[in-house]
Structures are given as structure tokens and as C-alpha cells.
User: Which sequence fits this backbone?
């Protein structure tokens, strides 16, 4: 993978991340500039207070779209995180499977690893994530 270790990437994504907002920050802030436009989508819930204060609101789901998969991480009703992996063929979702957060992270790391193998900018961003 050009010097990047798959297991280190999964560990870096897993560290101290128990909610959707945390994953949003990692994917958009740390990796956002390196990932292709539209690859990461964030759904937010805005309260009236958020609207009045002109805040973005709280991230409630993160969707990572790749040619073969859509990885969805969303806040569940009890404050936890629910994960789903959708299989895509020619732009059509043919299956949706619930996944553990660890399984979702492994799938995400695999997709990011494949992207890093093809794109130097993505590889540099992933290296920065692993270094710090």
C-alpha cells in the first residue's frame, strides 16, 4: 500500500470515536481535501437553536460512496452508532447489510487503501492521519 499499513489505518479510525460526529470530523476535516468530491456526504440534524445561531447542526450520518460500495454510519435512537454496507453494481444498490462498527471501519480502510494506491494526494492525507 505504498508504506501505509491497513491495520494502522483501522486503529487510527477506531481510536476515541464513539459517535457519528467524530467520524465526520475525521473524514471531512482530515481526509476531505484528499478524497474525490462527493465521496463523503454528511447528513445533519439542525435544531431551532442551531438555525438561530447559524450553526450547521449535529452530524447524524456519514455516507462514503465508492464505485462498488456505499458505507453508511448513522446515529441510532439510543445515542450509539449503526453501520451499514451497501453493495453497488452499475450504480444500483443490490444489497444492504448491517455491519459492526469494526466491520464498517475495516471496509472503509480497505476502500481508502485502494484509493491511496491510485492517488498520491490521498496517500499523503492517510499518512498524516496515521502520524498524528
Assistant:
Amino acid at each position: 500500500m505504498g508504506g501505509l499499513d491497513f491495520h494502522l489505518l483501522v486503529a487510527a479510525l477506531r481510536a476515541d470515536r464513539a459517535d457519528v460526529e467524530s467520524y465526520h470530523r475525521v473524514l471531512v476535516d482530515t481526509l476531505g481535501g484528499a478524497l474525490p468530491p462527493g465521496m463523503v456526504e454528511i447528513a445533519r440534524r439542525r435544531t431551532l437553536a442551531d438555525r438561530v445561531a447559524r450553526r450547521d447542526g449535529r452530524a447524524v450520518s456519514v455516507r462514503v460512496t465508492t464505485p462498488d460500495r456505499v458505507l453508511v454510519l448513522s446515529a441510532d435512537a439510543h445515542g450509539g452508532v449503526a453501520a451499514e454496507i451497501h453493495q453497488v453494481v452499475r450504480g444500483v444498490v443490490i444489497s444492504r447489510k448491517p455491519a459492526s462498527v469494526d466491520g464498517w471501519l475495516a471496509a472503509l480502510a480497505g476502500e481508502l487503501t485502494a484509493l491511496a494506491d491510485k492517488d498520491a494526494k490521498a496517500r499523503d492525507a492517510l499518512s498524516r492521519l496515521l502520524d498524528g
About this structure: Helices lie at 6-14, 20-30, 48-52, 101-118, 120-131. The mean pLDDT is 77. The beta strands are 40-45, 58-65, 69-75, 81-89, 92-99. Residues 32 and 40 are 8 Å apart (CA to CA).
